[in-house]
Amino acid sequence: MSIFEAGMMVCFGVSWPIAAYKTFKAKCTGGKSFAFSCLILTGYILGITHKILYSLDWVILLYILNMIFLLLDMFLYWKYRTNK
Asked: I need a surface site. Which of 7, 23, 32, 71 has the fewest CB within 10 A?
């Protein structure tokens, strides 16, 4: 387990709930990029795959938690995408 990897995941983990909350409150998606979110989602999937295949430790929970919040933000994007 790398403390640096865990630190990175915690920083991202704080960011996604804030982003989802802001989208929910504003009910608009101005300034958001769905393609960028898809790229980040791909990164989380690859990170989880690496953890499962080569380096299983508790940091996988951070990957999963971050991915859940990202998926929530992506859902809100689709829900509010027509409101500009």
From this structure: 7
